[in-house]
Amino acid sequence: MNSAYVPRDPNALPPEPQRIPKSKNKWGCGLFVVPLVLAGFYAFMEAKNWHPSDETFPVQGIDVSHHQGAIEWSRLPEQGVDFAYIKATEGGDFVDQRFAENWAAAGEAGIARGAYHFFTLCKPGAEQATNFIATVPQDERALPPVVDLEYMGNCSERPKIGDVHAELGDYLRVVEAHYGTPAVLYLTEEFDQAYAISENFNRPLWLRSLLLEPDFGARDWTFWQVSNFRQLEGIQGRVDWNVMQGSGVIIRPPHLPEVTRSRP
Question: pLDDT below 50 — which residues of the chain?
Fold first, then answer.
């Protein structure tokens, strides 16, 4: 290898820069990007309408709270909404601001309706039960009351399993005595694993397992929350979609208007 130093001529012109030839493909990576964008858009449009088979699960419905805003309930039956669970209360003193409006409008639309309470780990069960029964009217045609048991949105306290069982037991005794029917337990897998709720409380189960059928719980589920991204005309944004199976809960619409049920 020759490493001798060669002095540069001060009068020499600078070398011309090298030109990198352009690709002859005018579209470049666009040929790949456009189909991906279209595929993603199509998947999104399909996902917002997706629900399990009507043949396998003929009874399907929603759960809502004030987060859905004002709902046009009369538009929902024709989109396959057979039932609706409506948030009523949370903890010892919170009342959902749209409960009364949603409760009345769901009944007027002929949709089977039920109320749910978000159970907080920071308040006594009896106090929470008092809040619920002061808010939700007695209605023999209503779906059984639901108690929502999950970590998301709950307080930061994590009581011992025995304490949770005691407070939940107090809540259930008061609520079930008032409405004359067993309550339904809404559970996430992590909450059930932490507190063994389904194993120790023999009530109908409503299990959250997005897209895939639940594989947890001490017995078969009655309700399954299948998605949290369904979109319906008459509801702004996304809404939780659920299906029902078995005979543990009887669906009794407030009245039976003549509607054509179809699910897009």
Answer: 2-6, 34-35, 37-45, 256-264
pLDDT digits (tens, 9 = 90+) for 178-194: 999 999 999 999 999 99
Range of the domain at 183: 53-244
Q: How far apart are CA 184 and CA 172, in angstroms?
A: 10
Q: Each residue of 30-39: pLDDT tens digit? A: 555 544 544 4
Q: What stretches of the chain show up as alpha helix (H) in DSSP?
A: 30-47, 99-108, 125-135, 161-179, 189-195, 197-200
DSSP 96-128: -TTHHHHHHHHHHTT-EEEEEEE--TTS-HHHH
219 domain residue, yes or no: yes
Angle among Cα 101, 121, 131 to the nearest 5 degrees reads 35
CATH number of the structural domain spanning residue 192: 3.20.20.80
Other Cβ atoms within 10 Å of 130 Cβ, number? 18
Alpha carbon distance 74, 216 (integer Å): 35
Show which residues are catalytic: 63, 148, 150
Q: Is residue 7 part of a domain?
A: no
Q: pTM for the full model?
A: 0.80
Of 189, 190, 187, the C-alpha closest to 204 is 187
Q: What is the pLDDT of residue 3?
A: 43
Helix (H/G/I), strand (E/B), else coil: 60: strand
